[in-house]
Design goal:
eight-stranded parallel barrel, alpha/beta, oxidoreductase, 382 residues, 15 helices, two-stranded antiparallel sheet, globular, TIM Barrel
């Protein structure tokens, strides 16, 4: 059986019906996200991924994610904390500040930080930082990423570029992990999956569909990763897929709670804000919402987003389907819906007890395994 690793995704989703209904404040939402990561850490999940978004009311209030992730590293023991993503375009975050923050988080976590990168997926964000078009972000990303790697490697760094320039400077601190933390990129299109493979970096993606809908994209990546010319110091051969999960002993209870969790509201916000994503045919335009699934639809497996909702045996079959199409990591975003924390805790404890041991038998993270196989196991060498 091929292995599968597991993680969680935090977005600091804070919808109006929570605050208007006095369900929880923005501060309580933030604290719940941190508790979510600690629950995952205690129950054998290997990764926690934190978004960086700006100006996206309701959808994501997690703007200063580097501060959030630093706290999460201090509050956990084993789980790797990753950015999903850190926006590395120069108008949003100067590349030198990216290099500094990543290296600092790498030190704070004793090598438990994962560097997920991106260019922004919303015109609300991108235009808010003075970037004139979404297409421009591709050029900005392509310029910044290799420069961040150079800043870590070189003692006397200088650069004259299109979006930023620097006189000779030593960018500090240098990473704790030799030569640097694992690099990932957010991807949703065939071109970006191919680009990630060419650069030798992992892919962060999410699905509203079945494992089969991702298969062609994963195939593109896996066919090209062996030909990588890595932008960093080693290849991170990894596909992470984000979806939802509710694992309860009574599968029908899980499906009933899923139908009541208002996941459709969050999904509608995705397409309200993230206008770089293709809108599925027939998908409602905000403020209209997609229909919530029924228990019968979930039981029949016809609702794509509910692929990991049910009892442990049912979910294990779905996990195997993701393995079969080539995914390496499944990550769940259970705080972007209306579950209470007691339900989330129950679900993740059962998943950690019944499912993780069946699929993830290696105590070492795959990103660590790959780095050590290619460059060795040293830390803090500079």
């Amino acid at each position: 059986m091929l292995p599968m690793e597991f993680g969680v995704f935090t977005n600091m989703y804070h919808p109006k019906h929570w605050r208007d209904g006095a369900v929880r404040s923005e501060h309580q939402t933030l604290r719940n996200e941190l508790e979510y990561i600690k629950i995952a850490d205690r129950n054998g999940f290997k990764y926690s991924w934190s978004a960086e978004h700006h100006f996206l009311d309701e959808y994501s209030h997690l703007s200063a994610s580097e501060s959030f992730m630093g706290y999460a590293l201090a509050a956990t023991e084993r789980i790797h904390i990753g950015s999903a993503i850190m926006n590395i375009t120069a108008p949003v975050n100067h590349p030198a500040r990216i290099a500094e923050r990543v290296a600092m988080l790498d030190h704070l976590g004793d090598g438990r930080f994962e560097f997920g990168t991106g260019r922004g997926s919303s015109s609300t964000e991108v235009y808010g930082f003075g970037i004139e078009s979404m297409d421009k972000t591709r050029e900005l990303y392509d310029e910044s990423l290799p420069q961040v790697v150079r800043m870590w490697a070189e003692d006397d760094y200088s650069y004259e570029g299109k979006s930023f320039s620097m006189p000779t400077r030593r960018v500090l601190p240098k990473p704790y992990t030799n030569p640097h933390p694992p690099i990932w990129v957010a991807a949703g299109s065939p071109a970006t999956f191919e680009k990630a493979a060419r650069l030798g970096i992992g892919v962060l993606c999410f699905t509203l569909g079945t494992p089969d809908t991702l298969a062609p994209l994963i195939e593109i990546y896996k066919k090209n990763i062996d030909k990588a010319e890595p932008v960093g110091g080693y290849v991170n051969n990894n596909i992470m897929v984000t979806g939802d999960m509710l694992c309860l002993a009574d599968g029908d209870r899980a499906r009933l709670l899923y139908t009541q969790n208002r996941m459709s509201y969050h999904t509608a916000l995705v397409f309200k804000y993230l206008d770089s994503f293709p809108r599925p045919d027939g998908f409602p335009v905000w403020p209209d919402l997609p229909p919530d699934p029924t228990v019968d639809e979930l039981r029949a497996g016809t609702n794509a987003a509910a692929s990991c909702v049910g009892n442990p045996d049912e979910i294990a079959r779905t996990v195997q389907k993701f393995i079969d199409v080539g995914a390496d990591q499944l990550t769940f975003s259970s705080t972007v819906c209306d579950y209470d924390m007691d339900t989330i805790r129950e679900s993740y404890e059962l998943f950690g007890k019944e499912i993780i041991p069946k699929f993830d038998t290696d105590p070492v993270h795959s990103t660590t395994r790959q780095r050590e196989a290619q460059v060795g196991a040293s830390y803090g060498t500079r």
